[in-house]
Amino acid sequence: MLENHEMWKLIAIEWIDGSGKWTQVKLLVKNLRDELHKVVEVVDFPQYGKNSAILVEAYLNWKFWNDPKALGAKIPSAMFALDRAAAAPDIKKWMEEWKYVIANRYTTSNMWHQAWKISDQKERDEFLDWVDKFEYDELHIPRPDAIVYIDMPPEIAQQNVDKKSAEQRAYAGGKKRDIHEADLNHLKDSAAAYNYVADKFGRLKLDPAPNWVLRSIEENQQALLDLLRSNWII
Asked: 209 and 156 in contact (C-beta within 8 Å)?
């Protein structure tokens, strides 16, 4: 077991598809390796194509119901959580090897994608606490050192999703949008829920489109690096 936790970090990058997460993750990994000489591993959730993500893929590909609210909040949360639990041994191994681990999506995605389904604030807080305990305490998924959410306006993110290639959309059976992405109201409600989660649990925020003017990929990467440096993450 490591005694010096400064030697490794688990960093989660969050937000909806179309926000530029994966692009920023790849650039962050390159910068950590090339500029800061860190040893870095990447884990991408959901783990499409793996057995642990079979139920997640079915859910996102409209195989259960056409309404994302139909299964409630806890059942989909458990699907996504178990996929992360399957990756937990590798994440722990990498951390014990003093590596940086970058996660493209993590537990917080469960919180904000599902919390919007619960209108009562007390019940929503109870659900958020349940997710936190279920994933970190019961499934023993490592807790991140930092969680950054890319606060892309849902309208822009949804447009970016439509520009993705068929290969990028393979998990959705060739459809342009999965069950979450197809519903702009869901994305807007999820955005509001995420800000609520961020206030409750504390998250680092990156604004890629100040005043709705989308910055370049390079500008957003520099902003991400500056954000992580200023919070002593890298």
From this structure: yes
Q: How large is the C-alpha radius of gyration of the chain?
A: 17
- DSSP per-residue codes, 174-187: T-SS-TTTT-HHHH
- The domain locations on the chain are 6-230
Distance (Å, rounded) from C-alpha 39 to C-alpha 217? 23
| Residues sharing a CB contact under 8 Å with residue 112, sequence separation 6 or more, in sequence order | 14, 190, 191, 193, 194, 196, 197
Token pair of 64 as six digits: 């259960």
Read off the pLDDT of residues 109-133 as tens digits, 9 standing for 90 and up: 889 888 888 989 999 999 999 999 9
Q: Name the pTM for this structure.
A: 0.83
Residue type, 91: I
Q: Closest Cα to residue 29, out of 18, 42, 17, 16?
A: 42
CATH 3.40.50.300 fits 6-230, yes or no: yes
- 3-class DSSP string for 9-32: CEEEEECCCCCCHHHHHHHHHHHH
pLDDT band at residue 48 under the 50/70/90 scheme: very high
Residue of higher predicted confidence among 195 and 100: 100
pLDDT confidence of residue 69: 77
| Rounded Cα distance, 60 and 214, in Å | 28
Q: Where are the beta strands (DSSP E) in 6-151?
A: 10-14, 40-44, 100-104, 146-150
Q: What is the largest CA-CA distance in the chain?
A: 48
